[in-house]
Design brief:
This protein is an alpha/beta fold. The chain is about 30% helix and about 25% strand.
């Protein structure tokens, strides 16, 4: 990271910690104000002072976006690194607790968690103010994000202050997101895409956000109309369900999988606007986008991203890349996606170079699936294959099995 960019980020972060631009404005529609969020952050900062000093792990297992925003601000102001689980279910939390040893959870009031855990719910206390005496380094770890996927043990990716807030800052600037906007996300905030669009983007832009995370088409449309939503952040499966339903949006985003052209065309024809498809991952952050309504058939990298193609694979240098990823001497990370250059600054996705595929927006390792199949009683050998769907990165899974008296219900 250049010295200039580091200075810009430090200045931006210090400004963010000074307090909200519009304290009385709703952060959550019909809910907590921006002033409330900062007061809750101050409450958490005071409560977690010893935890941060002793570098003890803290799990962020909240659904309320105001609570999540307050926890991020408290961590940003010198609080502890936060573990973000892939689910707040008892099973998921038990797996992560076993791995990290956390004993403290930040959540909204009224939630029940396994015994033996300290649950902290931030309070709106007018007498407290967020302390900004700590020097905030853009390279400090803000979050440890767990991704459950569909196979194997959970993966965890470290994300720095720079990773999270500089990407949200770019999105707000590039798409002119302001306090006039209201954001609705149909993906939960424990997913990096949901976190960015429904918590961090509002924080840096002063936009409001809908607290609910609807998934059924009727729910999405009803809430969008009732709350006068201007920005929708959703996923391909939800756009397929929405079909030709009309909403008065300014922007629509799609990520976590490839959007079928037919679904895109149906939505765009009715709404007279394009869906911005964002390509990236938890570990890399956003990399590129396209809007086929504007004639963009290929992906254009964000202006903050340097990229190149090496041996048909995409390599990126980016301020959003997790420090856990290996980079070469020039700062490039080699992704597993195969790509083809289409012009001076666009590329098309041609599939994966490893055994990881996407099914329903989730990454699945075919080798792990194959190992599980071979453990089934009666199976002597198997081959697991990806069967591509119409889009470039989505697949079905097929298996060819050799054996006798195979337990097909296993």
């Amino acid at each position: 990271m250049s010295a200039h960019y580091k200075h810009v980020m430090q200045t931006f972060i210090q400004g963010l910690l000074q307090g909200p631009k519009f304290p009385e404005k709703h952060f959550v529609c019909n809910g907590a104000s921006y002033g409330d969020v900062y007061k809750m952050a101050a409450s958490l900062q005071a409560t977690l002072a010893d935890t941060a000093h002793n570098n003890l792990p803290v799990c962020l297992a909240a659904d309320d976006k105001a609570v999540i925003a307050a926890a991020l601000l408290a961590s940003l102001a010198g609080g502890p690194t936060l573990f973000l689980p892939y689910s707040s279910s008892a099973k998921a939390l038990a797996r992560i607790k076993e791995r990290t040893g956390f004993t403290t959870i930040i959540s909204e009031p009224g939630r029940e968690f396994p015994t033996g855990l300290q649950v902290i719910s931030p309070q709106v206390e007018a007498s407290l103010k967020l302390s900004t005496s700590e020097h905030v380094s853009p390279e400090s770890i803000l979050l440890e994000i767990f991704t459950g996927g569909s196979t194997g043990s959970p993966q965890v990716w470290s994300k720095t202050v720079q990773n999270i807030f500089s990407e949200a800052y770019y999105l707000a600037s590039h798409y002119s997101v302001t306090e006039q906007d209201t954001i609705l996300a149909t993906i939960p905030p424990y997913h990096i895409y949901g976190l960015l669009f429904s918590v961090v983007l509002p924080l840096v832009s002063s936009a409001s956000v809908v607290n609910e995370t609807p998934s059924f088409p009727g729910e999405i449309v009803h809430i969008a109309r009732e709350r006068k939503v201007t920005i929708l952040a959703s996923v391909p499966a939800h756009y397929r369900g929405l079909g030709s339903k009309k909403m008065s949006l300014r922007l629509a985003f799609s990520s976590a999988g490839m959007l079928e052209k037919a679904d895109n065309d149906t939505f765009c024809k009715q709404n007279r606007m394009g869906i911005i498809e964002v390509y990236g991952s938890t570990e890399t952050g956003g990399i590129a986008s396209r809007n086929r309504f504007l004639g963009e058939e290929f992906f254009t990298p964000f202006s903050t991203i340097d990229w190149k193609i090496t041996a048909n694979r995409l390599a990126v240098r980016s301020p959003y890349i997790s420090p856990d990823l290996p980079i070469d001497s020039h700062g490039y990370f080699m992704a597993s996606d195969r790509v083809s250059a289409q012009s001076e600054n666009t590329f098309s996705l041609e599939g994966r170079s490893d055994t990881v595929i996407k099914v329903g927006g989730k990454r699945v390792d075919l080798e792990e699936i194959n190992n599980l199949v071979k453990q089934v009683s009666g199976v002597s050998d198997s081959v697991v294959l990806a069967v591509p769907e119409l889009s470039g990165r989505e697949n079905l899974i097929g298996a060819v099995i050799q054996g006798s008296n195979v337990d097909t219900q296993a």
